[in-house]
């Protein structure tokens, strides 16, 4: 207990050094619980934010994001996990390893299969994975910039290479009509999911570190590893781009989420705080420190629901809930 208190004190001291005590609100209104006592290497929320999956030590665990306990747990014989993903209906779990992907059925609590994947380069390894059910589709991003699309219903495998470097973000849009990808080459690509032909592209000068989208509101947020953080309307008939405004020379965002109503953007830094922004203006509303056990804690994933409730998952294994409307009112 005493060690934990010391770690929290050290974490906050470092936070003051990096961003200044007037920049981060540590007296936030939030609830939290610790889902893992051991550090988390990979962690993601489900599409609705009601479940989460994470890798800790030699296990993959799926848990209720509302604190309802562990839903599934699978031992790993290979600890070189590159990414994990949950299907939208929470029935399937996928984990990518260096040269293959494993899929589990969460309802039956059993392994469905293991699938070897390759890129265009013989040296390519996996970097991102996404999975969908009914019908089952696997997306696998590779370190050479290629993307594999495996359609199990039609027994088809397609590969496309829009990127020249490691894939860092990969997903299908609503109704599975669009394929979104981003990479370490700085390119953000939205393609037709059937033809794999590009419909929107934007190139950043550095690697893409974070991407969030709300295609119902025609909004796309992208961030590189330096000072390019933009909100676009990718399918607008008029040019629309908003750059996030801040005083520092650069900021590095590891996670992000856009509210369903399109008003707010949340970004997680490479340290242990997150920032709330106005989408329409790119102006910062406030920054908030997360609960931390170690000085290296950072946000792995974040999700905003239709009630404007944000949930964050940290590398310390802490799930934390934030009422955005309450936070907005407290900063007025």
Automatic annotation (TrEMBL):
SUPFAM superfamilies: Quinoprotein alcohol dehydrogenase-like (SSF50998)
PROSITE patterns: PROKAR_LIPOPROTEIN
InterPro entries: Quinoprotein_ADH-like_sf, WD40/YVTN_repeat-like_dom_sf, WD40_rpt
Pfam families listed in its UniProt record: WD40
Name of the protein in question: Uncharacterized protein
């Amino acid at each position: 207990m005493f060690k934990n208190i010391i770690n929290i004190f050290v974490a906050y001291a470092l936070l003051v050094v990096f961003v200044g005590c007037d920049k981060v609100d540590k007296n936030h209104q939030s609830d939290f619980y610790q889902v893992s006592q051991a550090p988390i290497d990979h962690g993601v929320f489900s599409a609705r934010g009601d479940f989460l999956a994470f890798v800790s030590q030699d296990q993959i665990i799926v848990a209720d994001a509302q604190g309802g306990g562990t839903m599934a747990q699978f031992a790993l014989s290979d600890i070189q996990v590159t990414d994990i993903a949950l299907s939208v209906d929470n029935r399937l779990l996928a984990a990518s390893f260096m040269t293959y992907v494993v899929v589990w059925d969460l309802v039956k609590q059993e392994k469905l299969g293991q699938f070897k994947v390759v890129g265009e380069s013989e040296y390519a390894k996996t970097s991102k994975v996404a999975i969908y059910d009914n019908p089952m589709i696997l997306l696998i991003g590779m370190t050479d910039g290629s993307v594999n699309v495996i359609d199990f219903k039609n027994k088809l495998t397609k590969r496309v290479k829009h990127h020249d470097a490691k894939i860092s973000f990969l997903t299908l849009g609503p109704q599975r009509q669009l394929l979104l990808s981003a990479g370490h080459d700085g390119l953000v690509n939205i393609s037709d999911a059937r033809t794999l032909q590009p419909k929107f592209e934007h190139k950043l000068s550095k690697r893409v570190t974070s991407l969030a989208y709300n295609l119902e509101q025609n909004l796309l947020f992208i961030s590189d590893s330096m000072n390019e953080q933009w909100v676009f309307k990718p399918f607008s008939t008029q040019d629309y781009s908003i750059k996030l405004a801040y005083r520092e020379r650069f900021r590095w965002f590891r996670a992000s989420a856009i509210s369903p109503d399109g008003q707010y953007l949340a970004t997680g830094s490479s340290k242990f705080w997150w920032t709330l922004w106005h989408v329409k203006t790119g102006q910062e509303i406030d920054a908030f420190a997360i609960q931390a056990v170690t000085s290296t804690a950072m946000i792995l994933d974040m999700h905003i629901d239709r009630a404007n409730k944000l949930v964050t998952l940290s590398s310390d294994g802490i799930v934390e809930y934030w009422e955005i409307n309450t936070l907005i009112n407290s900063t007025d």
